[in-house]
Amino acid sequence: MLRGMYLTRNGNLQRRHTMKEAKDMKNKLGIFRRRNESPGAPPAGKADKMMKSFKPTSEEALKWGESLEKLLVHKYGLAVFQAFLRTEFSEENLEFWLACEDFKKVKSQSKMASKAKKIFAEYIAIQACKEVNLDSYTREHTKDNLQSVTRGCFDLAQKRIFGLMEKDSYPRFLRSDLYLDLINQKKMSPPL
């Protein structure tokens, strides 16, 4: 997890924000900052309404500070948090949590079994490409659950990762410029 980090002269570890990280975040949030520049785009009034339906008011963004749950149920909040996690190289935690949420919606037992194996291989297996940070007990418990797949087979692992985000990434997100800019945004006055 030391990618994007460096030691200063006095030995302190500090974060190095790269242009690529900033560009990635800008691209991720681009859908919410649409401009009415392309031919055939809706008239400015409609584009403004679409924009307002995506971007939260500062009051809405303030509610995200009450709990991680309130942040994750808001589409814009989810996208902003995901962009923030990407800058910290920990987006796999949210991706795993979202994969578990999708998994719970699967109805077919055969699809559930196949999706469970895919989630385990991608996020939980040792040396997985997007391996999340789980203790050995949780990892083994989840592996055992795959013997008889149910909607709850990832519950413990999902709970642990949620707790990790809630105690670690979420407080840093609330202190980030990305979030502070949203809650301190200026109210635009309508044209006369």
UniProtKB/TrEMBL annotation:
<dbReference type="InterPro" id="IPR024066">
    <property type="entry name" value="RGS_subdom1/3"/>
</dbReference>
<dbReference type="GO" id="GO:0005737">
    <property type="term" value="C:cytoplasm"/>
</dbReference>
<keyword id="KW-0488">Methylation</keyword>
<keyword id="KW-0734">Signal transduction inhibitor</keyword>
<comment type="function">
    <text>Down-regulates signaling from heterotrimeric G-proteins by increasing the GTPase activity of the alpha subunits, thereby driving them into their inactive GDP-bound form. Down-regulates G-protein-mediated release of inositol phosphates and activation of MAP kinases.</text>
</comment>
<keyword id="KW-0832">Ubl conjugation</keyword>
<keyword id="KW-0597">Phosphoprotein</keyword>
<keyword id="KW-0539">Nucleus</keyword>
<protein>
    <recommendedName>
        <fullName>Regulator of G-protein signaling 3</fullName>
    </recommendedName>
</protein>
<dbReference type="InterPro" id="IPR044926">
    <property type="entry name" value="RGS_subdomain_2"/>
</dbReference>
<dbReference type="GO" id="GO:0005886">
    <property type="term" value="C:plasma membrane"/>
</dbReference>
<dbReference type="InterPro" id="IPR016137">
    <property type="entry name" value="RGS"/>
</dbReference>
<feature type="domain" description="RGS">
    <location>
        <begin position="67"/>
        <end position="183"/>
    </location>
</feature>
<dbReference type="InterPro" id="IPR034951">
    <property type="entry name" value="RGS_RGS3"/>
</dbReference>
<dbReference type="Pfam" id="PF00615">
    <property type="entry name" value="RGS"/>
</dbReference>
<dbReference type="InterPro" id="IPR036305">
    <property type="entry name" value="RGS_sf"/>
</dbReference>
<dbReference type="GO" id="GO:0009968">
    <property type="term" value="P:negative regulation of signal transduction"/>
</dbReference>
<dbReference type="GO" id="GO:0005634">
    <property type="term" value="C:nucleus"/>
</dbReference>
<dbReference type="GO" id="GO:0003924">
    <property type="term" value="F:GTPase activity"/>
</dbReference>
